[in-house]
């Protein structure tokens, strides 16, 4: 069997932590920030952990 190629778009969006969890960035934080509250914009800056149900697909895209 050949090796699985890494999905390059997924590799740029997700990062695997030391414990094996997958970290992602929040959506809706790129532009049109005038109508968003300061609290929302501050919370969107934080990274989030991918849910357990989606981990398998993302691991496969990352070639793991």
Tell me the layout of helices and strands:
Elements: H1 8-13, E1 15-16, E2 22-25, H2 38-44, E3 47-49, H3 52-61
Antiparallel strand pairs: 1-2, 2-3
Could you say which overall geometry the principal axes of the C-alpha atoms support? elongated
C-alpha termini separation: 15 Å
The count of DSSP E runs of length 2 or more, i.e. the number of strands, is: 3
CATH class: Few Secondary Structures
What series of H and E elements makes up the topology?
HEEHEH
Taken together, the total number of domains comes to 1
| Overall average residue pLDDT | 95
Given the structure, what is the number of helices? Answer: 3
Q: Indicate the CATH architecture.
A: Irregular
Biggest sheet, spatial arrangement of strands = 1-2-3
The low-confidence parts are none
Which structural class should the secondary elements be placed in? alpha+beta
C-alpha-based Rg, rounded: 15 Å
Q: Biggest sheet: strands, sense, closure? A: 3 strands, antiparallel
> What percent of residues are in strands?
5-15%
Helix amount: 25-40%
Description:
By secondary structure, this protein is an alpha+beta fold. It has one domain (8-61): Factor Xa Inhibitor. It is 36% helix and 14% strand. The protein contains three helices and three strands; from the N terminus they run αββαβα. It has helices at residues 8-13, 38-44, 52-61; strands at residues 15-16, 22-25, 47-49. The protein has a three-stranded antiparallel beta sheet with strand order 1-2-3. The longest helix is centred in the last third of the chain and has 10 residues, at 52-61. It is elongated and about 50 Å long. The model has no long low-confidence stretch (mean pLDDT 95).
